[in-house]
Design brief:
The complex is a heterodimer of chains A (about 475) and B (about 425). Chain A is of the alpha/beta class and about 475 residues long. Helices cover about 35% and strands about 20% of the residues of chain A. In chain B, the strands form 4 sheets. An 8-stranded parallel β-barrel of chain B has the order 1-2-5-6-9-10-11-15, surrounded by 6 helices. In chain B, strands 4-3-13 form a 3-stranded antiparallel beta sheet, with no helix packed on it. The longest helix of chain B has 17 residues.
Chain lengths: ~475, ~425
């Protein structure tokens, strides 16, 4: 007999009847524990999707729902009636509700069951759910609640790579991360005045790294306050060529007097002014990256023209800080627009630049969720991805955790969901990060960094509409 | 007695009229694989170095982007950083301007390349003309042309001081009319300490900079009296600066053409020159010399008359200027065309393409190189193939063994750093 799954209302009499039956079966098991953890009622307004399974004879056999629980997408009230047993109803309902959660925009789904429901726990574990620390309304309840999480899509995993001025340390860290399945290395840079110790120029080190590590993307930190925007733009663009589309750029500023003195071109600006200028630098870089249309190289022997000069454009960037004529000396790179990463907190001076110019916003700390919400709000229609910092050594174990690796993966999903983030940035030691990446990553990194982030490759802003297009 | 040893460089020509991009074997000028393949071939040929030029703005003709030659290239340092990791011995020369860089960042970048390559980084020191390139930089056309070399010297002194300070970590202070810098080295001491320095200008100021700082010079004079007097001049300047008269390697740029017979090689050289000057390129060369546009000029016909020359008009921007006197150059073309019965295009081919001495069988070319070096006209050559990335293949396979046979070329690397292989004392 086949089973059909359809959407229903939370107050559908069939669903209400199942819920009552479920309570009658389950609640007595918790009577002796209720004083430790009061029952959490479902507010119908938070329910997003309710599903009912019916047999081919029309008889309802089970139900499940999806609700929004704070930042979490929560699967709730899975119930299968006796007459639906051994028809695969539970598995079918779970598959359908996971799909519904994906469609609602959740990257991971959570659920809570109880310590006295070993059969339910076994079912979820069979379906690939892993134990997670009690979340949302269950936080702190390690007696009764048994919570689970499941990644609905492969999570994006980035990791910070520190520098100490030696080539081998940074390159071997990136190579180990590459082998662990991490998507992106955020390569730190030192300062131009040497404060903080020895380091190497980050974009050049990144070019070496992408040559030796075939899969991982690398985004060097480049501060724009004392560097030449034209040089920064072409170095990052060239890195994208070297990396076959695996380049990113952590754009940052410098407000240090030491760096200002080391370069000697200007006094140190305030952080606010530095970020206002950084926005202009990123804008100029983006124009330069678009200054060659993708098909500018034509090699037309008949006319002797190597390029179609009408497809290579001056950018004429002008702002209070500098002017750039353009075009770039580098043809449009594999990604066209290279993902720009900006670190922002909710109240800091970087958030406006992040909202307007970043593709990836890195948030951290107890207010990560607030920063994430704020930057998405400011960005409006512009597509951005948010990554949240995760220190693997601070992972919190679920009471029913099985393995350390599973625990790391669950903790990453929890941190991600709590911060409304699309992925994590591992900020531990290289060893910790490699291990965490291995535990969290769910796919072989492939394709360009934009593709891994789910960002389309834009055509050049200077490209004319194709001939014959709507006019 | 051991012979003077030949040093060879390999120039990836990229953005100029050298590359015959119309040929099917002409590969990508931007894909990293082209640069890697070129470097690995040069390394297989035990060449001292691979050379990349720099262009800080796309070249223009009559106010429009010049579209007839290869256009577009990677960032020099990023590309060399990549090549550094897939080669072990060859030196990596980055052409970088003293005009639009600042010493602290620049010293850091070159030192990084020296670390990434285990001591194979080199800097070809150039200056940039003001306003045209300045349009892409924060300072714009800030530097008077007369000050270009003064800033270059101050810049080089600051950069050397930063490299030298890596051992002690001491602060370097520079305060003059160009710089006000207080910086510490940021990169740990590198294998070469000071990356190798090259210079490529022929002006008196350029030669002075070379005699003072450089370990090698990239000259345009490949043979004949011009090459001899250039070599003599450089040696005299070296001595005046208290350096040994062979402290600086003279590497003239040269294309080459090989054949199984001398005739075949000559024919190949002739064809290369014609292919480097397409009809459209010929028109543009004539326009540059005449200082005006000639839309629709038939280059298989005669040159325009001398009275059409508009003096003082510079149509070409972003490339080194070869001739200052337009009228004299036009007259030379017209005279040559009349004497030899040449079409406009043939006259351009005859006067603007480089004549290389390196044409012949592999044995011929090896002999010419050997003789040039034994006669101290140069210390070798900077080879400029017209096809990339495969243009060096035949040279490496056939000329290099002949050179080794003659006892004037290495069979193994002398050292691990570029400075050691070049035989250049640490300045």
């Amino acid at each position: 007999m086949t089973v059909r799954i359809e959407r229903a209302d939370w107050s559908d009499p069939r669903v209400v009847a199942f819920r009552e039956q479920m309570d009658a079966e389950i609640q007595p098991r918790y009577a002796h524990l209720r004083h430790l953890a009061p029952r959490v009622e479902v507010d119908p307004a938070t329910v997003l999707v309710t599903l009912v399974a019916t047999r081919s004879d029309g008889e309802p056999v089970g139900t499940v729902a999806l609700k929004r629980t704070g930042a979490f997408g929560e699967v709730k009230r899975l119930f299968v009636h006796d007459r639906g047993r051994r028809l695969g109803v539970a598995r079918a309902l779970m598959g359908a509700i996971e799909q519904a959660a994906r469609e609602e925009g959740f990257r991971e789904a959570f659920l809570q069951t109880g310590s006295e429901q070993p059969q339910a726990m076994a079912l979820y574990e069979r379906e690939g759910w892993i134990p997670v620390v009690p979340y949302g309304p269950y936080a702190g309840d390690t007696v009764l609640s048994r919570c689970y999480v499941k990644d609905l899509e492969a999570p994006f995993v980035a990791a910070v790579v520190q520098q100490d001025g030696t080539v081998d340390r940074a390159l071997s860290a990136i190579s180990s991360l590459d082998a662990s399945g991490a998507d992106l290395a955020l390569l730190e840079d030192g300062t131009l005045d040497g404060a903080g110790g020895w380091s190497l120029d980050a974009p050049l080190l990144a070019a070496a790294a992408v040559t030796e590590s075939p899969r991982i993307a690398v985004a060097p930190r480049v501060r724009v306050t004392h560097t030449e925007p034209f040089n920064v733009a072409k170095a990052i663009q060239s890195l994208d060529w070297s990396a076959a589309g695996r380049a990113g750029w952590v754009a940052d500023v410098s407000a240090s007097a030491g760096e200002a003195a080391a370069v000697g071109r200007r006094a140190a600006p305030s952080t606010d002014e530095a970020w206002a200028e950084a926005e202009a630098v990123i804008d100029a870089a983006r124009r330069l990256w678009d200054s060659w249309e993708d098909d500018a190289e034509i090699r037309d022997a008949a006319t002797g023209r190597y390029i179609d000069a009408s497809r290579v454009h001056y950018v004429d960037a002008e702002n209070p800080w500098f002017r750039i004529k353009g075009p770039s000396i580098v043809p449009r790179s594999p990604q066209g627009q290279i993902p720009v990463v900006i670190e922002a907190d909710a109240a800091g001076p970087a958030i406006a630049a992040a909202a307007r110019e970043a593709d990836v916003v890195r948030v951290a700390g107890p207010r990560a969720g607030e920063a994430s919400r704020r930057v998405r709000e400011l960005a409006g229609e512009r597509e951005i991805r948010v990554l949240v910092d995760l220190d693997p050594s601070e992972a919190v174990a679920a009471p029913h955790a099985r393995t350390d690796d599973e625990q790391l993966a669950a903790w990453a999903a929890f941190v991600r969901a709590e911060a409304h983030a699309d992925g994590v940035v591992l900020i531990g030691t290289t060893e910790q990060n490699v291990r965490a990446a291995r535990a969290i990553a769910r796919r072989e990194p492939a394709g360009t960094l934009r593709e891994r982030l789910g960002l389309a490759r834009p055509i050049s802003r200077y490209a004319r509409p194709a001939e014959g297009a709507a006019r | 007695m051991t012979k003077r040893q030949v040093h060879l460089g390999a120039h990836f020509p990229g953005v100029n009229a050298t590359t015959i991009w119309t040929r099917p074997e002409s590969g990508s000028q931007i894909e990293p694989s082209s640069f890697v393949q070129f470097a690995q071939t040069a390394e297989r040929g035990l060449m001292d170095l691979m050379f990349l030029a720099e262009g800080l703005r796309l070249r223009e003709h009559a106010g429009q982007i010049h579209d007839l030659d290869v256009v577009g290239r990677p960032d020099t340092l990023v590309q060399l950083a990549q090549v550094a990791r897939v080669t072990q011995h060859i030196g990596l020369v980055a052409t970088l301007s003293t005009t639009f860089n600042e010493p602290a960042e620049f010293a850091r970048q070159l030192a990084t390349l020296d670390q990434l390559s285990n001591g194979r980084a080199a800097w070809n020191l150039v200056t940039s003309h003001g306003a045209f390139f300045g349009a892409n930089f924060r300072r714009g056309g800030f530097l008077a042309d007369d000050d270009r070399y003064a800033r270059a010297e101050s810049f080089a002194d600051a950069v050397f001081a930063l490299w030298d300070a890596a051992g002690t970590g001491e602060e370097v202070r520079v305060s003059d009319r160009f710089f006000d810098v207080a910086a510490r080295p940021t990169v740990p001491p590198t294998p070469q300490g000071r990356p190798v320095v090259m210079q490529a200008g022929v002006s008196p100021e350029g030669r002075e900079i070379a005699a003072r700082y450089a370990d090698a010079i990239f000259s345009p004079f490949a043979s004949g009296p011009a090459a001899e007097s250039f070599a003599a001049d450089i040696r005299a300047r070296l001595v005046a600066h208290g350096r040994a008269d062979d402290a600086l390697k003279i590497l003239p740029g040269a294309s080459f053409a090989l054949g199984d017979t001398r005739e075949e090689a000559l024919e190949r050289a002739r064809r290369d020159q014609w292919d480097q000057v397409s009809p459209a390129t010929a028109v543009r060369q004539i326009e540059t010399i005449w200082g005006r546009r000639f839309d629709g000029l038939d280059v298989d016909g005669p040159l325009p008359p001398l009275e059409d020359v508009v003096e003082g008009v510079e149509l070409s921007a972003g490339r080194a200027k070869v001739h200052a006197d337009q009228r004299a150059q036009a007259a030379e073309l017209i005279e040559r065309a009349a004497a030899e019965g040449l079409s406009a295009r043939a006259a351009v081919v005859a006067t603007t393409t480089r004549r290389s001495p390196l044409v012949g069988t592999p044995a011929d070319v090896a002999r010419i190189i050997d003789e040039t070096v034994q006669n101290r006209v140069s210390d070798g050559f900077m080879l400029i193939p017209s096809i990339t990335p495969t243009g060096l293949d035949r040279f490496v396979d056939q000329v290099v063994p002949e050179l080794q046979e003659r006892g004037c070329y290495r069979s193994e690397w002398e050292g691990t750093t570029l400075r050691e292989n070049l035989g250049s004392a640490r300045a």
